[in-house]
Write a structure and sequence with these properties.
The protein has 13 helices and 11 strands. It is of the alpha/beta class and about 350 residues long. It binds pyridoxal-5'-phosphate. The site of pyridoxal-5'-phosphate has 13 residues, from helix 5.
């Protein structure tokens, strides 16, 4: 079933066999990969493991992501790009996205000459299930991207809605759960992959796990899709440095948990503060580590904050988001500086 959805040239691809992917077993002398001998068998002189086995075992232990259903990419961004290139035929296929949402889905589609079908959210920024299903029926996209909690709105969509869209979609449905760790009472789509193997879930080390600089994205999918990803990806896409950073984050899972709690508490407190400001007309409820607000004049507020040395995102150019600003939840001192600046405006 997955095979039929793949690009024919990906389906027929003979994988590049790297030195480190051919070898399995136990050895102590490695003369197979033209690496430097200086540094031992497990140092930076050695290529990283193409399968990221150590990291994925730890991901299973700490995050509960089944080992045989996981792969790691150079950020989720690489995985998004790869999925589009695995499934979509250039100048022929298209992807379907909600609007507004994370910007890279459409950028990666366009860099591969893949079409983009936009389905606007409802005015209250929830998923328009009927409109999505209508568009799926008429346009037959190869991939549907759903981001939950959505960036830049912070909204979580009901899992039933996501699953009924995924059921209707005969192509791949990618559920991007980058902000899942910040959502309360969240149910992941990972549990639905067994019933519908066309569902793919994205997670990342960039947000709650605090490793944006390492570039570590997670693909959770049916093992069939894993196999294709493994043969289509660059052999050493994730560096040893990144792997070490990921392992460090997972070993410090207690600290991650603590930081998540602190971020959620600060999100609530910041939302309450923002809703008291006279020029803030709307504070959108958020389940992520940022808050979207509507103000009287977003451009003016953005420039004012910049003058005060504070950078936020002006999202006003996104559909439905006129005069909105997205604010990431920072440290306590960051938020105090923000509050001080906001109080002194006008
Ligand atoms: C930040 C973010 C990601 C993470 O991307 P990485 O490449 O893993 O850093 C993925 N999806 C969404 C919606 C995001 O906002």
């Amino acid at each position: 079933m997955i095979n039929e959805l793949l690009n024919p040239w990906i389906r027929d691809l003979v994988p590049y066999s790297s030195a480190r992917s051919e070898y399995s077993g136990s050895a102590s002398v490695f003369l197979d990969a033209n690496e430097s001998w200086d540094g031992g068998n497990d140092g930076m002189n050695r290529y990283p493991d193409p399968f990221m086995r150590r990291l994925r075992k730890e991901m299973e232990r700490v995050m509960g992501i089944p080992y045989e259903m996981s792969a790691v990419g150079n950020g989720s961004d690489e995985i998004i790009d790869m999925l589009i290139r695995m499934f979509c035929v250039p100048s022929c296929d298209s992807i379907l996205i909600e609007q507004p949402t994370y910007g890279t889905y459409s950028v990666f589609a366009r860099t591969s000459a893949v079409g983009v079908i936009d389905v606007p959210l409802t005015p209250s920024l929830s998923l328009d299930e009927d409109a999505m299903i209508r568009a799926i029926r008429s346009e037959k996209p190869k991939i549907v991207f759903i981001c939950s909690p959505n960036n830049p709105t912070g909204r979580v969509y009901p899992l039933e809605t996501i699953l009924s869209i995924a059921e209707e979609n005969k192509g791949i449905t990618v559920v991007d759960e980058a902000y899942a760790d910040f959502a309360e009472d969240f149910t992941s789509a990972i549990g639905a992959i067994h019933e519908n193997p066309r569902i793919v879930v994205l997670r990342t080390f960039s947000k709650a796990y605090g490793k944006a600089g390492a570039r570590l994205g997670i693909l959770v999918s049916d093992p069939e899709i894993q196999k294709v990803f493994m043969k289509a990806k660059p052999p050493y896409n994730v560096s040893r440095c990144a792997e070490n950073e990921g392992l460090e984050a997972l070993l410090g899972a207690d600290a991650v948990e603590k930081r998540i709690k602190e971020t959620i508490a600060r999100r609530k407190e910041t939302a309450a503060f923002l809703s008291e400001l006279p020029y803030v007309t709307e504070v959108f409820p958020s389940q992520a580590n940022f808050i979207l607000i509507r103000v009287q004049d977003a451009a003016a507020l953005y420039s004012y904050l910049l003058e005060r040395g504070i950078v936020v995102r002006n999202r006003s150019n996104d559909p439905l988001l006129e005069n909105t600003i997205r604010i990431t939840i920072g440290s306590e001192s960051d938020m105090n500086k923000l509050k001080e600046a906001l109080c002194e405006w006008r």
